[in-house]
Structure formats: C-alpha cells, structure tokens
Write a structure and sequence with these properties.
single chain, mainly alpha, two-stranded parallel ribbon, 6 helices, 2 strands, 69% helix, 3% strand, elongated
Length: 212
C-alpha cells in the first residue's frame, strides 16, 4: 500500500487520540455529575429502578459480546485488508455499534433517563462524523471494493440480509488482547455506578442534584 497507507495510518492515529481525549473529557463530566447527584425517584419506584438497571446490564453484556466478536475479526487487519464477514457483514461499524449499546447501557445503569439521554445526544453529535471520516479513508485505501461493500451492508444498524461467517480465521493475538482492555472498562463502570449509589444512600457522598 506504500505511502497512502502510511498517511492514512497517521490520520487514523490522530483521530483515535482525539476521540479518546474527547471521550475522557465527557466521561469525567459524567463522573463528576454522578458523584454529587442521585436518581430523583430513589426507593419510591423500586420497580422502575430495577428495570432500568437490568436493561442497562443487558445492553452492556451485548456490547461486550459484540466488541469481542468484532475484535476477533479485525485484530491486526485494520486498514490492511477490508474485512466484510462475520459482524462486518451485519454492519460496516460493528465496534461502534457495540460501543453505542454499551454507552446507552451505562446510562441506563445510572437508573435515570437524564444520563441515558445525555449519552444518546453525545453519541449522535460526535460519532456520525467519525464514521464518515473513517469511511472516506477506507474508500481511498480500497476503492471499488469498499464502494461495493457500502452498497450491500448498512453503515451502523445491523441487518442479517448479507450475513456470512468464516469457519476459521487467523488473528493477531496481541492486537486482540490489547482490544480486550476496553471491555474491562464497561464492567468496572457498571460496578462503580452501583457502589456510588450505595455511598449516596449511606450519606457518605452528598446529593446536590436529583436526576430523573
């Protein structure tokens, strides 16, 4: 692939760093908000609380499975070959879709609609642009092959119309292992949210704001 590949790799690296930084800033703001707030209905609506938390855990679980599945197909191959099978035959961005499920799941695990809505708005404002930029880079790398892929597979929301799965495949173990680190983040945050709620109820953390 030569110089075009190196240029795109540099662009992807800068984009990744920017995305990580913005995600960290957003995450810090959410954390600070939750540190001094609690759900407004508290024990007055235990069924609603439990339902929101359960839905959140289910979405986080789907995120973990989806990201692990996607990583198994793309580990060590990103921007080196066009992966179009497995989860990449369901949609062109299965990792982002899985992360979307996980982010919404974490929002629901706060047992509030406010934080869930904030996550949805943040994702809708930022990630479509990220996806468009990355797909422009893929079109430059893979040309007609990627254009044909675009025509047959949806960008974000999965469809099983073109689903195809490999019987066996080779992956980069190191790249796969590095990608798995992100999965631990979702699990830790789910536990942290429940722990912070316990601290609020015990009076250890002050509640300055009610969220619904």
């Amino acid at each position: 692939m030569g110089r075009p590949f190196l240029n795109i790799q540099q662009t992807v690296t800068k984009s990744l760093r920017s995305r990580i930084f913005l995600t960290q800033v957003f995450g810090a703001l959410v954390f600070l908000t939750l540190l001094f707030s609690a759900e407004g209905w508290e024990s007055r609506n235990a069924l609603l609380e439990g339902s929101l938390y359960l839905a959140g855990v289910v979405l986080v679980a789907l995120c973990l499975v989806g990201r692990a599945w996607g990583l198994s197909y793309i580990a060590g191959k990103k921007n080196r070959m066009l992966v179009t099978t497995g989860p990449y035959s369901l949609c062109r961005n299965p990792l982002y879709f899985s992360s979307f499920l996980g982010a919404v799941g974490l929002g629901l695990c706060t047992e509030t609609f406010t934080m869930t809505a904030a996550v949805l708005v943040a994702f809708a404002l930022y990630y479509p642009g990220v996806i468009r930029r990355e797909e422009l880079e893929l079109r430059e790398l893979f040309g007609a092959e990627f254009e044909a892929y675009q025509r047959s597979v949806p960008a974000f929301f999965p469809s099983f119309k073109a689903f195809v799965e490999d019987e066996t495949m080779l992956i980069s173990v190191r790249a796969f292992r590095n990608g798995l680190r992100d999965l631990g983040f979702f699990i830790v945050v789910v536990g942290l949210l429940e722990f912070m709620e316990a601290l609020h109820r015990a009076g250890v953390l002050p509640t300055l704001l009610k969220l619904y």
